[in-house]
DNA sequence: GAAAAGGTGACAATTAACGGCACCTTTTAA
DNA sequence: TTAAAAGGTGCCGTTAATTGTCACCTTTTC
């Protein structure tokens, strides 16, 4: 077997192993120790990340379990990937901060020179003036891993000690948020990631919720009608505005030609709601409740008051 | 270069071409005709589908014009790609509408079963409540290609016939926009993609701008101070709001502890500016000009008036 | 029918690949 | 403390793959 083919076979051979040593290669491929070592060097040059340990209990381990197969992308798909990666780079802060540039580089290296030009050209042609996260979010990765491991995080949130069981991470309006149940405060809530401090992952505790219970809490939270219901009249542009700047726990309700925005608020979300309604300008009119109408009018008056 | 590496390079080199001949390989890789033929045989053995034509106008053609890439991604990078692809799917409408799902599928198929689980889990954990484009944008692809080909598009824009030379496509506030110079109206502007009708690509015309001229026009447009300058006082939350909802052609100016938002507007952008300022709520106060102050106050009064 | 493209076979020259060996470093178990 | 077991390096002769050249073939097109 020639070297190039053997290397491919070795990749497959190794892909399902976490650990191996020279003997494995020597026996499986009928090669000398010297060649096995040379092959390992070649594989590393191909990008395989290996960690070697010397000593009696030594051996090799795959640092990353890698994606090893060939993938066929047509030119449209290549363009699409680069488009996506560029969009992600604009976002600046994601759980995968460092990865996007590396991916772009690896992919770009594997393109023909002329196609590289195409990619760079289309990167220049399209751009995202999107909402980059303003605050620093050092815990995005930790939070995501906590969700995946179904573990807990202990942190300070607005000065309060919380023990959170997070279940979803999401991006909205330039902020990273996560939905979590607080085992200390016994409440489900959406937390802003940038308002966490001293965040650490923590092993499970006895009173941790099961996944089903957690989803149940989230459902209760999202369909919480214990708050005050509201009803807001939208014109056509108002509907459009809502669709472009959608908030959870609000729905459009159509009654013939007329459209209402409905939902409910709690004291905790009251201020947010007023800020949000301001962005509708003339395209929304609060119908009920009176409390919301009054506060909204007061807010408008306060803004006007700045100029008197 | 060794054969095995050369074959990989040749794959990359050929992936871009629909047709090629032996000369191309010989020249590009500095090999003899005999070796080029042997390489082609090797590539076919690797699975590349080629069709050969003898005779004076002969050559080779790729039967499947796919890009053959073999890339090693670590688990972080795989997760990052899926993250990016999911974000793009949320966006619903991009120049690459159909591609993202296909890419996800192809990649997913190439992962070990255990890793597929991980990917699906992290897809469930993270999500983008982002601003999907509301309007249908059938011309995104055409516009992007027009930019890349440096060609023109003829279309109807708000009932007006325009002949546009577009130079950049971008996404902002749930809308796809593109920057273009109108050869009929002789003006540079940002156009909303969803407001185009009967859009067709068109070959160049004599009075088309050079790329440099186009960039110049864009620069003039962006730094257009012919409009009315404004000056708006921002508190801390106002600054944050600006950074999260940034508009082009506006800057923050710091004077000691005090921060102003400055820029300029034209009659065409006046209404947009007022809508935008509304979103600042109490966190912004217009200093100058008086015209803007008055109109803003009138807008507030009009909203208040809905309730009387 | 000549030119230009792809294609084959043979052979000598080159060079990459290989195994073997001596010897080094690190770790660990006796 | 020492020996064994693991990875690691340098050197060298042998072997086998790779390459270029050359002569000659087939097909297509001008």
Description of the structure:
2 copies of one chain form a homodimer. With 308 residues, chain A is an alpha+beta fold. Chain A has helices at residues 3-15, 22-29, 33-45, 75-91, 99-109, 113-125, 140-149, 211-222, 236-244, 270-278, 290-305, and strands spanning 19-20, 50-53, 59-62, 71-73, 126-128, 152-157, 160-172, 175-182, 187-192, 196-202, 228-234, 250-255, 258-265, 284-288. In chain A, the strands form 3 sheets. In chain A, strands 9-8-7-6-10 form a 5-stranded antiparallel sheet. Chain A has a 4-stranded antiparallel sheet with strand order 12-13-11-14. In chain A, helix 2 (22-29) packs across helix 3, helix 4 (75-91) runs antiparallel to helix 5 (99-109) and helix 10 packs across helix 11. At the A-B interface, helix 1, strand 4, helix 4, helix 5 and helix 6 of A face helix 1, strand 4, helix 4, helix 5 and helix 6 of B. Strand 4 (71-73) of chain A pairs antiparallel with strand 4 of chain B. The structure holds a DNA duplex (30 and 30 nucleotides).
